[in-house]
Amino acid sequence: MRKPFGAAESAAKFGILEEMAKVLDIEIEALQSVRQQLSSEFEEAVKTFAACTGQIIVTGVGKSGIIATKIAATLRSTGTAATFLHAGEALHGDIGMVGPTDVVLAVGKSGETSELNILLRFLKKSGARIISLTSNESSSMAKLSDIVLNLHVPREACPLNLTPTASTTASLAIGDAIAVALMKLKNISESDFARRHPGGQLGRRLLLTVEDVMRKNEENPIIRVDRTVKEMLVQVTAFRVGAVSVVNAAGELLGLVTDYDIRKALESGRDLLSLQISDIMNPSPDVVFSDEKAVDALEKMKERNKPTAVVPVLDGQRKVVGMVHLHDLISAGL
Hints:
- There is one protein chain.
- By secondary structure, the chain is an alpha/beta fold.
- It has 2 domains: about 5-190, Glucose-6-phosphate isomerase like protein, domain 1 (Rossmann fold); about 210-330, CBS-domain, CATH 3.10.580.
- The protein has helices at about 5-15, 15-35, 40-50, 65-75, 85-90, 115-125, 140-145, 165-185, 190-195, 200-205, 210-215, 230-240, 260-265, 275-280, 295-300, 325-330; strands at about 55-60, 80-85, 105, 130-135, 145-150, 220-225, 245, 255-260, 290, 310-315, 320-325.
- The strands form 3 sheets. The protein has a 5-stranded parallel sheet, sandwiched between helices.
- The longest helix has 22 residues, at about 15-35.
- The radius of gyration is 31 Å and the shape is elongated.
- It starts with 6 loop residues before the first helix and ends with a helix.
């Protein structure tokens, strides 16, 4: 009796890496084919999406539904109002979310999925425009659509040429292309993008300013230049930052005293308490401004061979409004 192939025997039967490379080649072939099929319909679809005063409703069934979910998510994150509508659930009440100002993007390779086409017939009556993404321009779905985006691929990567593989890759890529084109049309900026991703590192790097992370108000170590060195030492110790900003009566920065400056004064052999603050301070410290991006401040503080651990923060009038420590910026997740 013949034994079934084990993993090692199966691997010997065919080259795993060669098979994986073949799949990638087929999917690359599919993308190149779609690239050559780009036509005025694709441009018309993007303009229709851009002009939509409602939202983009992306729908599909099965694997096409999974792709539709991702397309909707990409549109939302890049500045276009969009949501995924499950074709089956829509026929049981969710169809009420679609209005005449919306545009529907239906994803389906064959264009003959019954529940999707039933949904599109109802949506067409609601007044919403329908754009289909399909490999079959003659399908029922295509006939129900205002714009048809032909996504024919030469073959699937599946050895039986049945499982959606190359076709779903092509759909996903076109979804990305539509989203990026819409970003360009809408002039979506880095700040716009960051506002939609405030929880991620990218959002923090683009949105956080020095003011958001600096030590301010009662946590801001600051002292007038005409105070005594003893008072200054108390300030440095109390705030546990290892530094204090030195200002004039108007609150303008005159210098910075750090632990290092105090050690230097002690090592000089002079009586520390007999000195003036101006004798100890660094009169030209590095500074940052409160409205700067926090990530830019971090780069400034790190760019020297010996990173600056703490810097005063100034406002537009060059008055001291805070202090920021290198650890504050790193702790902010930048």
